[in-house]
Every structure is written in structure tokens, then in C-alpha cells.
Amino acid sequence: PCGGAIPEELVSELKLSHEIIEREFDHLDLHIKNELIHRKGKGVVIWRDKFDHFITKKAIQKGAKVIDRSPCINVKPMDGGYKVLTPKDKLECRYLIAADGCNSTVLSSLGWPRYNSEDVALTVQYEMVMAPDLINDKFGEKIIHLFFGKDISKRGYGWIFPKTDIISVGWGCQLSLIKNTTKEFNYFIKSIKNLIKDAKKIKKVAHLVPTTIRNTLYSQNLFAIGDAAGFVDPLSGKGIAYSIISSEIAASIIKKYFNELNHPLIEKAYNKKLDRMFLSVLRKKKSIQPDVYSSDDSIIRFLNLWKNNRSSVIAKQLWEIN
Fold this sequence. Notes:
This protein is of the alpha+beta class and 322 residues long. The chain has two domains: 5-50 and 117-210, D-Amino Acid Oxidase, Chain A, domain 2 (2-Layer Sandwich), CATH 3.30.9; 67-115 and 212-318, 3-Layer(bba) Sandwich (FAD/NAD(P)-binding domain). The protein contains eleven helices and 14 strands. The protein has helices at 8-14, 48-61, 105-109, 132-139, 181-191, 193-196, 226-229, 240-256, 263-292, 296-306, 311-318; strands at residues 5-7, 21-32, 35-46, 74-78, 81-85, 90-93, 96-98, 120-129, 143-148, 156-162, 166-174, 200-210, 218-219, 222-224. The strands form three sheets. It has an eight-stranded mixed β-sheet with strand order 1-3-2-9-10-11-8-12, sandwiched between helices. It starts with a strand and ends with a helix. The mean pLDDT is 95.
């Protein structure tokens, strides 16, 4: 599930309307054991369905054609492109962008490997109704909360993202390290029971999130973007921004090389742009992830660094020298 936190710079870039913003925040409270670390950080919390509808409308305004209720069920290569099969259509295209998440039907149909359990996190989330004044009293008007510790998640964390009259309460952990999902999620819920005792659960969802970038990101006019490509921060689980950036890069490459048949050239151009924007940083974060989550002391060390530094700076410069 997506808690729905979006950084301030993305809000400005996308010109998000106030109708889809549930709450603004200017701080993150980082909880571990008996410690509380305050980190400044501006952004908003949204509902993903409203956000996705907003993005879809912008695409339609730019000329995109949206076909409702037509999930991809299979993809077959054809001469010069691909044939996409849905329950009611057979769509042919020259270029194809796989933007269908961690368990991408597009990529698996074409023989791309699925993620293994070491390369994904399982996330579980409750949506819980709570009176707005209680939300403000318990969590602060402009604060989101993250909960760390080896007892809570062996490699991950829990969260509370307040919205207008609902709180999103979630937990995530590397899939291969989970022994009993229900037991481990409930342990986290019990650890915050005093914070959520006045809230009523209305929904429970679970989702897989990749934490490792695919080895191949382009092949034969096929681009992988977003979760399908593994473009998720392996330390924080942030992925919305990388999905948007990678989609823009893929579109720009298609526009530039639309009539090209030089696949190595296209692949090199795509990887180069991705690397310049975020790919090298995500790989560096992945390299320090096991060490960051190796112990509570190591997590606390990271959180204290994160208090005053961007996680990209920690990964590239500060982690190995501190």
C-alpha cells in the first residue's frame, strides 16, 4: 500500500490541486525504542486513487487515450513492436512502457524474471477513521510518523500518515526476512496501541514493493519504469517521484528515437538519463541498506545523520566515514 506522502518539490512540479491534498506536513517524527528524532521535511499526504485520477486527467489533456476496464492480460512480440491483449481489445504498438508495478504482467509475459523474495518488501496497511481534532492532538497538525527498530521490522519500518479524518497505519519488511506476516504486523500495531486506540479500522491492504533495480531496463522497444523497474528507495520505500521521473525520461527517449532501430543506442541513452537523475543514488543506497538495518544502533546512527542530511548525501558521502 502507499501511505501517500509526497515531497514538496513534486507538489510544485505537478501543480497539485488542493482538492487532492489531505494534509500538509513540515516534520517527520522518527521513533526508535525510547528515542524520538525530529526531522524537518515538507510535503503533503494524498489518497493514491485521487492522485492517479489527477495524473490521468493531465495525460488526457495532453492527448493520451485512456481505455477503462482493460487490464493487460498478456503481451506478445510482433514484427516492429508488440501486441497487448486485454479482455476486450488487441492493441498494437511500436514502443511499450511497462508501468504495471512490482508483479508486472507486461514484463513477465515477455520472459523478464520476477523479483525474488530478497528483492521485495511486503507492506501491510490499515486505514483507520479518527476524529480530526484527535488526529491533531495525538499526531500534530503537520507531522508524519515513522517507527524503526529490529523488533518492529527486521529490514523496514512502520508508519502513521495522518490525513483529514483518517490515519494510514502501515508496516513493511523485506519479504525473505518475514516469518509470520500477521504476527509481525500485529506486534507493530500493539506497540502503538495507545496512539490508535480511538481509531476505527475500515480497510486493510497489502502490497509488494521492489527494493532492487532490475538488471535490464530496456529491450527491443520495451521500457521498464517505476515499480516495474525497481525504482524505489531501498531505505525509505519512496517511489512515486521515481515513477514520474522515469516515465518522463522514457517518453523523451521515445520522442527522440521514434524512427530509430538502433536498440543499443536507445538503451544507452535511457540508462544514461536515468543514472544522471537518480539511478546511481538508488544503487548506492542499496549498497548500504543491509548495514543501516543491521542493528538498532546502526539504525539510530542513520536516523541521526538523516536528521540534518538528505539520504542521498548519507549514502554517497557520510555513511562510510562516520
